[in-house]
Amino acid sequence: MISRRTLLAGAGGAATLVLSDRIIPAAFAAQIPAIGLQLYTVRELFQKDPVATLGHVARIGYREVEFGGGGYDSMDHAMLRRTMDRLGLKAPSVHIGYDALLGKLDQSIAMAKTLGADTVVLPYMDAKLRNEAGWKAALPNFNRFATELQKAGLGFAYHNHDFEFTTKPGGTSLYERLIGETDPALVKVELDLYWAAHAGESAAALIDRLGSRIYAYHVKDMRSDRSMTAVGQGKTDFAALFKLKGSAGVRHFYVENDEAPAPYLPDITTSFKTLRALRF
Questions:
Q1: How many Å apart are CA 42 and CA 57, to the nearest integer?
Q2: Where are the beta strands (DSSP E) in 34-141?
Q3: How far apart are CA 2 and CA 192, in angstroms?
Q4: Are the C-beta atoms of 84 and 117 separated by less than 8 Å?
């Protein structure tokens, strides 16, 4: 990969890209083509009025959403799909819990397809499974979920928090076991950049290691005190992460803030504007 860096030039502060011995406009630098939002960020709004919330999200400029939380799994999925179609939104992936995949896989597949998703993401594992015995029993199911989803034309990915890195039964982290004991061709990862960093991991090293296994990013920023904040309000150098070789195949960039302050829309607007202006 040719190294790249951005300079500020001209009276107006317009960005240019220095590439080898040539200077080309920053418009040719990479940018996110369709910024997404994990709807868990606005779960309280979404649960009360999903149609209005999707409308707000679309007007801000988001073009992708990822369903998760807010009671979406018990809503009218055909209605949600019609609403997204009307607003010009797509839902490439949906979060579906372990128990639902274990006991209601067919219904989960139908829901994902109705919403127009191409990938099912497992978002979380309960504390009772975060030990050697529980994880050892669960990982074969990850492979099975991925195999069955592939038969239905869907992909599968796992979304991390921090516990996968910090919990180390027998000296090996749960995340290390996940990566080593699941099929890399079938079990992809949705890398939550905040939670990985919160666990003390180098996001850059993870990206370079995981490479083609990364399906999507959860993009959330971290303040100096390690608390969560809107993208652009913290210290994370997202441009540096996104231009890494390992990021080349990442398909989706979902803004998420688990702790977004009410009324929520200003927070996701800040994140959207930051990512829209980002060049890498």
A1: 9
A2: 35-38, 64-67, 90-95, 119-122
A3: 26
A4: no
